[in-house]
Amino acid sequence: MQKIKVIDRVGFTARLGRLRLSTAQAASRSHALRHLEDDLYEIISPVSFKLGEVLEWDGEINKTLADVVEPPDSTTPTEDDTDLAPFSSLSSEDRVLVIAGEIRTLRADGTESVSGPDGKPVNVWTRDGKASVPALEAVLGESITGQERDEAQAIADADPDDQPTDDEAAE
Predict the structure, then answer these.
(1) What confidence score (pLDDT) does residue 160 get?
(2) Rounded to whole angstroms, how far apart are CA atoms 28 and 108?
(3) Is 41 exposed, middle or buried (0-12, 13-18, 19+ CB in 10 A)?
């Protein structure tokens, strides 16, 4: 396992492998993880991490990921200090990009509901196909505005990498 810190403002998505996470990190991603033991989890569907998060991952850091994550240096806060760069301290633009990343991940995973703060399921999608604010807040562990969700939804919907290929659409 390698300890890594997310350095890309759009975030990092792990699709395979095992992760060592804090309780708070795992709670907001419980829909995509299988608990193995203590703080060790197996990825069952893609899991996204925000700018500044520190975690351990058993995946390979290739050239592409080298621009997204790095080994935390000695000045990086430990898990006891904090797991996240405070979402509220991000610029408005960065907040929207992080939210857009979560929307893309939820869509790619086919996630229909997530666990809310009270442990009850929260529907991810509204009737008009947008990600719901309460679901995004549950995933992010932070409050967001409807305007941030709308801007992020537009980015997620416009992302050409997120659209099905002709073969996928035919299935």
Answers:
(1) 55
(2) 17
(3) buried
Query: Which residue, chain included where needed, has tokens 């992760």?
Result: 19
Model pLDDT for residues 96-137, shown as the tens digit of each residue: 888 888 888 888 778 888 877 777 788 989 988 899 998 888
Q: Using N-to-C axis directions, what is the helix angle for 146-158 and 92-109, rounded to 10°?
A: 60
- The tokens describing 94, both together, are 């960065």
CA distance 99 to 95: 6
User: Residue 80, exposed/middle/buried by CB under 10 A (0-12, 13-18, 19+)?
Assistant: exposed
Query: DSSP assignment of the chain, as one string?
Result: -EEEEE-STT-EEE-SSEEE--HHHHHTTGGGEEEEETTEEEESS-EEE-TT-EEEE-S---HHHHTTEE---TTSPPTTT-SS--GGGS-HHHHHHHHHHHHHHHHHHT--EEE-TTS-EEESB-TTSPBPHHHHHHHHTS---HHHHHHHHHHHHH-GGGSPPHHHHH-
Structure tokens at 19: 């992760």
